[in-house]
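RECORD TYPE: protein structure
NAME: ABC transporter G family member 5
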Amino acid sequence: MTRFVDKISVFDRRASAMAEAEGIARDGLRMHQGSPAVAIPGPPVQGAGGSITLGQLFKRVGDAHNGGGGEEDGDGGGNDSQRHHVLEVDAFEQYHLDSRPPPPFVLTFTDLTYSVKRQQRMSLFRKNRLSSDQPEMEAELGRTKTLLNSISGEAREGEIFAVLGASGSGKSTLIDALANRIARESLQGSITLNGEKLEGRLLKVISAYVMQDDLLYPMLTVEETLMFSAEFRLPRSLSASKKKSRVQALIDQLGLRAAAKTIIGDEIHRGVSGGERRRVSIGTDIIHDPIVLFLDEPTSGLDSTSAFMVVKVLQRIAHSGSIVIMSVHQPSYRILRLLDRLLFLSRGQTVYSGPPDGLHSFFADFGHSIPDGENPTEFALDLIRELEGTPAGANALVQFNNSRQFHPTQSASAKPALSLKDAISVSISRGKLVSGATEGATSSSSSSVQKHANPFWIEMGVLTKRSWTNTKRMPELFAIRLAAVLLTGFILATIFWRLDNSPKGVQERLGFFAIAMSTMFYTCADALPVFLQERNIFMRETAYNAYRRSSYVLSNAIVSFPPLVLLSIAFALTTYFAVGLAGGIQGFIFFILIVLAAFWAGSGFVTFLSGVVTHILLGYTVVVALLAYFLLFSGFFINRNRIHDYWLWFHYMSLVKYPYEAVMQNEFDDPHKCFVRGVQMFDSTPLAALPEAAKVAVLRAMGQSLGVPITASTCITTGTGILQQQSITQLSKWDCFWVTVAWGFLFRFLFYISLLIGSRNKRR
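PREDICTED:
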């Protein structure tokens, strides 16, 4: 069995740019000139049959990045840090490392075809067609639109592969297809890496996808944004100091040193420039130094200089040992010089595939020579648009390109000297793909990598810290919420000031409780745009397993809870004593708790709707309508025993029912407190106009008939009697409290389910 000779020259692949910026050797490799084997800290690891598996190598690299139990992590094992062990690798037995460098990564795609069915268009004003037109209608409904038509090509490590074409040509669709963002059953053709089929799970770990829009938290600085990305994508085996050093190296690589302490900014808060924002977006996805990088029009919306700087950064990323695949609309001449391979599309078909230098000869042979001094890409795109305007379209150009059809190169067609698993292992040993380190050990490359770099509690902590940092820098948002609650409480306190214990006071208390509890839910409607604004960030980050959806849901709940506590205390202090509610200190504390529970349930309800409804105006409409129904069936307007059976289910589904009944019991659940005495029973009746003496005489007559003396001061209705009149007898106030709390947890669980179903990040 041959040994893995440790010489840096045998890996004739460009070192990672971040490693160069750090200026340090990778901890996973110890270099000894003339040493017969790779020395890696820790005990020897061998897989089945004595060969190391990719998963085991991941673990060794992770341990090495963690310091291998050396002094950096405080283990104090000075002797352990000096122990070197030899890895014997069967996979390299037939591969002479000292004779030639390992082959570069080559992503090959062949005959990619993707079609979608046309949607039926409905029109209220379209006339009914005659029966003779029925076959034509059926044929129209059965048509499909081909977005990609037998597209082939290859992208190599160290190069920028650019997809060009007019709007609607299929550029973004091709990028999505290569990035596994189209369901495999809908996409025809093959995609391989180094000749082996590229599985979706493995691709997520070794690649990154940069969307066209800059999806960033506005109040975080450039350095903070990249640091949070490092916390997500880099494993916990990497120390905090090393993560920080990688972030600083990436800032230098992206040319963002001058803007490192500047916030991202938005329409209101001034921040970094457009070009810097785009480079930050790229940086968040390349923090783990991916092998394959996909970008959807990274230069869109930028001026010429900013666009050139972005592509220059991409060139450095490619030269660090990555495959860069990007779509671009119309590159300038300076940008064209940075590109290595071009693929022109026209309505889903290939019209040119090759290096930029081949454009002149290609179009000259086609009969349309590129004039001297003209941008070749501009000429090509103008010619394609001109041809697309003809009845035949660009078919002539497509057929001409097919005559120069794609032939796989020797490296792509022949079996590579290293398997994909071993090639990734070498890449990991050079410091790339840090997020792939895992403790698992299997022989399959796709199952040897972790789905997520960190456990969920670390993800939840990082998400909570990021969201809280972004939120606390916009105190005006909480100030507006607090002002709204205080204003509502002030209005209610002044309207229902110092209610007495008369029958009118009872009715006014009922109105106060119904309005107050429903206000809690309406106030929570401001949580609706929170996730709607973060949805695209969430979709981008979870598409490549930056964190779990469950971590996001828990973090969202944690960050939203402290403001609810402050709002609950503020509302209770504003209204409880001013209205003159009963219960003393204990009643006041319960009032705060039930208001907090109502806020919690309302926030969960609105958060769940934000995961289902994608448009903010539609979301507000649904929230207002449903909360109106909840109030209607809460038991305030009509008692439970008066609701028909076919609507009774909605009464128990009402979110307002339970906090309303809880505060009612907190106020009236006292059999010794009287709310209706003697002549007060005639209030709100025709007998209320009788003289006082007449009312007393009526009471005396009623008492004689009943055999019970009834005077003007006799208690007629107690607090428990009012609860019975309102049909509030099934649950205690604490039962209502816990049901309200449970509603909040249920809606957050439903929010998690909506994220699972609605964020698959793939076309069908």
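COMMENT: The longest strand covers residues 144-156.
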